[in-house]
Structure prediction request, 260 residues.
Amino acid sequence: MRALLLAADGEFIPPGAGDFELPPIFGQVTKPMVLLVLSVIIIMAFFLIATRNLKIVPGRFQFLAESVYDFGRNNIARDQIGSKDFRPFVPLILSLFTFILVNNLFALIPIIQFPTLSHFGFPLALSVLVVYPTYHFVGFKRHGWHYLKKELIPPSAPKVIAYGLIAPVEFFLKFFMNPITLAIRVFAAMFAGHLILLLFTLAGEYLLIEASVALKPVSIISFAFAIAMTFLEALIQVVQAYIFALLSASYIGMALASDH
Prediction:
């Protein structure tokens, strides 16, 4: 992606939000849409190839797949949902983790170099259309209409405060704000991180090519920051995939729990 623009006088114009709006590849299909489909193909191929010839002593590929599965199953789903209820939700939590992880890591792959979830609509769709219907469905299924009381009204609060103040606030948070904040976390991290990488990379290119001779050595500093931020961004991409899956499992666990 080329975000470096030069004004008529050669002034550097830093990248901004407009650089994330990519033109359609064909029809109304854009690069982020293609990357979403590609991520699903990559994940399916990875697990299908890794499990096609299972062995007691796993090879490297099988070991990697088992490690990813074990992490999603035990470290996220079971820890957050509980040992009695977690099994039906393992496919969902594992799918969320791997899907977000692959789409985040696209930002570091040459040629692709775009984090899909830097478009807010994609993480918002995961949150509003996948996580929160599941979260509330299992809550109503287990507790019936008592689920609303469990979620909205603390048992020890006075009725006047509980129904007049706490319940409306909790309803707003749990049914409106939580889906949005869940999506904002990964979106903001991917958007800001990629923007910073663009800034240091393109600033280094500008200083090296367009700036005066005295400023050209400064481009080394800019490129050094770009490299350092790349490693940091890789860590953040993994952490954000983990946080999204962790919070999703946590919400499901809270919906199933008998206590507020």
